[in-house]
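Two records follow; treat each independently.
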Amino acid sequence: MPTESPPLPSIPPEPARPLSSFAIDVPEALLSRARSGEGAAFEQIYRWFERPVFTLAMRIAGDRDEATEVLQDTMLKVLTRIGDFRGHRDGSGTPFWGWLRQIAVNESLMRLRSQRRHEHAVEPEDEHLADDRTPPPPAAADAAALGRALAQLPAPTRSVLWLYHAEGYTHEEIAALMQRTPSFSKSQLARGGRRLRQLLESGIKHNDLEQAHA
């Protein structure tokens, strides 16, 4: 009798993509009012997206002044270009929040590229480095601790981490945005993820020691 073939190894499923903080459903009626130039409508849109834009810019730029300027430039472009957004009507299916987020990402990365001072701090890409998709430890839920840890990473590395883990971009999309390769994105995610977990875990131990001696 023929022997049964051994079962094929199971392939782990792709991790669920995170829900972006930009994912706000903006009513078409509000967009129409904003397109017509109604200030109150645009002010409402600004209030809804102010925090997501600033947080994104802060994570990429790592500086509050830079993040404030990214916020201002992003919203100015949204104001002047909102008439160009057609969303579902042009067949692209792009939601308004995705369109706005793309402007914010482009503005943040443009400032990052203009700095140039970060380039020496980034390790070269390594095609053989494992693609580490593991999210940061639970301590990352503490926004303050996460911000301190991310600030200690090179700017391109934390940009890859944030775009991948917080915004759900793929390596191919990140590569296109940062004008690099998917291998670069994978390398920065793996190295940066390990370093971020170390920083967060060391922060937990430090806090525990402080509380023990309090």
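The next record belongs to a different protein.
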Amino acid sequence: MWLKLGQFQPPAKEANAMHPTPPLTTLLDAATAAAPPARTIPGFYLRSRPHGFTAHICASPQNLCQVRQLTSTELLAQGVEVGAVDSAQLVLSELVGNSVRAYGDYVPLVVEVYATSHGVVAVNVHDPEPCTLPRRRATPLDSAEAETGRGLGLVDLLAPGWHVRRSAIGKQVRCRVPAEPSWN
């Protein structure tokens, strides 16, 4: 919610001495008192974008759960088929999980998920470290013994051609999950 204050005019010195300007927190409290309370989650800021969303999160199990649910809700509302939604959720989970393993719990991330007009779902995860790149391990996807190391192999299958680029906040892992609208 934006508070419109109007054009600034400095008060006369006498008036300012008798009636001090209320602090900004008082003005914001007054402005938000009329607004319905918003549901907030610590470390989770959501912005809408065409055909999807952008979420600024501190990586945590609760925030990952919220982003996965939001991914499902938003993509289904855009007409993306259920299989592609599941794939997008899995890619998102792998990318966030890789960031947590590399940088620790509560790493600040920016997650973008949106349906494109080209029959794909974009899943982008930004993290603050521009130099550390995701590494594929030599773990076969069908290995019965391996407990980790298959994530980027799954991303390769579900979002072929994914890539990494530097961004204003560090780096961005960009994935495109093939998807056709469910109404086709």
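Discussion point: Helices lie at 13-18, 24-33, 61-77, 82-103, 151-158. How would you locate this feature using only the token line?
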